[in-house]
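Before relying on records like the one below, remember that each one covers exactly one chain. Contacts with other chains, cofactors or solvent are not represented anywhere in the record.
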Amino acid sequence: MASQRPRLSVVIPALNAAEGLAATLAALDPADEIIVVDGGSRDGTAALARDLGARVVETAPGRGGQLAAGADAATAEWLLFLHADTVLSPGWRAVAAGRLSQPDAAARAACFRFALDDEAPQARRLEGWVAWRVAALALPYGDQGLLIHRSLYDRVGGYRPLPLMEDVDLVRRLGRRRLTVLDAAAVTSARRWRQDGWLARSARNLLCLALFYAGVPAQRIARLYGR
């Protein structure tokens, strides 16, 4: 008997992401629609995505705009937004299908548990901090993925074309009552923390969040962040 699970459109914004994109795509279900939104990569990201069976949409760089363009191009009623350096853990699709079968599924968005692909103690501490932030503040970031019904996405206004903090901007509009955490991990590359320093990068992320909540425009925060 054919499966009755809801069909997903998986939207992945990418910029020079060829190094880790294959692993990200390999963890997905090929029965779903997979859209890679390339923001002008120079490392063959778009060609690699096509070779691996993804549909490619090309846009100007800027993750908020890329996410919005991917949502516009998607054809499924359910949308899953995912970063190009994040690999969903085995069994995630069954967990997602279980969530989507719930009576209130279309009224609430969901994210995955945050995890890093590093065995360092700093990684475990950061995972603990993120778990606290999500539980206490209802504030998952984009590296946890976002699973949302098209109607809810449209109702809250979708992703805005921000160069940074587009994920925070959207989940703030969703609010605590319309967010839940799935029992599966989204495993993100720890490369940038290793490269910048665990404390330095975490402090910079926290500063960007504080500035955004203080009303500093995302464009100015992006310059600080180094984009």
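The longest strand covers residues 179-188.
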